[in-house]
Design a protein that fits this description.
Layout (H helix, E strand, L loop, with lengths): L3 E7 L4 H11 L5 E8 L5 H8 L4 E3 L8 H14 L4 E4 L8 H6 L4 E5 L11 H8 L3 E8 L9 E8 L6 H24 L3 E4 L2 E4 L9
Helix pairs in contact: 1-6
Length: about 210
C-alpha cells in the first residue's frame, strides 16, 4: 500500500488539522502531511504546522489578479510537495473547476451541517434559523458545486433549546474531529468506492490502494 501525501488547506485556527495530525501520530492513518497551505498569512493553522515540523505556506488570495491564478499557485505548491490527497480543513474559499479538475476524486472537505441541508458559509446560522432539531457535519468528496459532492461520512448532534451559533458550532466541531480523520483513513486504505452520488465503504479485507 502506498503512503499517501496529504496537502491540507486551512483558513483559520486549524483544529481539524490538529485532529488529523494526532490520528497520524497514533498510527491510525497511514499517511504523511506533505504541506499545509493557508490563504491567510496569519492563520493559526500555519503555526500549528510549524510546531510539528510540517512545511507551511501562505498563498494569499489578494496577491493574485484572478481566482484562476490563485488556484494555479495552490496547485503548483501541492505538486511541488507531491501531494496525492487534498484535504480542505476549514478552507473558506469555493474552488473552481480549474482546481477541482487537477485533483478529481482526490479532494475531501468537511462541512458543519448534514448535507444536502445548509450548504455554504453560514451553516450554523441557517440551521438555527430553520428550527431544525438535529444538525451535524459531513465529510464529502469535492466536485464543481458548493458542498455538493458525494457524501462519505456524517455525524449528527442535537440542537438544544437556547443554542447559539457558537454553542452549536462547538458541539458539531467535536464530531468533525472524529469523522474527518476516519474518512481520510478510509480513503488511504482504499476503502471508498464512488458510484454516482453514492460512496460505498468497503470492508477492510477488501480494500485496495487507490
Amino acid at each position: 500500500m502506498r503512503k499517501e501525501k496529504l496537502g491540507i488547506l486551512c483558513s483559520g485556527r486549524g483544529s481539524n488539522l490538529a485532529s488529523i495530525v494526532e490520528a497520524i501520530e497514533r498510527g491510525e492513518i497511514r499517511a504523511e502531511i506533505a504541506v499545509v497551505i493557508s490563504d491567510k498569512i496569519d492563520a493559526y493553522a500555519l503555526e500549528r504546522a510549524r510546531e510539528k515540523g510540517i512545511p507551511s505556506i501562505a498563498v494569499v488570495y489578494r496577491d493574485y489578479p484572478e481566482r484562476a491564478d490563485f488556484e494555479r499557485a495552490l496547485i503548483a505548491e501541492l505538486r511541488a510537495h507531491d501531494v496525492t490527497l487534498v484535504v480542505l480543513a476549514g478552507f473558506m474559499r469555493i474552488l473552481s473547476p480549474v482546481f477541482v479538475h487537477a485533483y478529481t476524486g482526490r479532494i475531501l472537505n468537511i462541512h458543519p451541517a448534514l448535507l444536502p441541508s445548509f450548504p455554504g458559509a453560514h451553516a450554523h446560522r441557517d440551521a438555527l434559523a430553520y428550527g431544525v432539531k438535529v444538525s451535524g457535519c459531513t465529510v464529502h468528496f469535492v466536485d464543481e458545486g458548493m458542498d455538493s459532492g458525494p457524501i462519505i461520512l456524517q455525524a449528527a448532534v442535537p440542537v438544544m433549546e437556547g443554542d447559539t451559533e457558537e454553542t452549536l458550532a462547538e458541539r458539531v466541531l467535536s464530531q468533525e474531529h472524529r469523522i474527518f480523520p476516519e474518512a481520510i483513513k478510509l480513503y488511504v486504505e482504499g476503502r471508498l468506492h464512488t458510484d454516482g452520488r453514492k460512496v460505498h465503504i468497503l470492508p477492510a479485507a477488501e480494500g485496495e490502494s487507490l
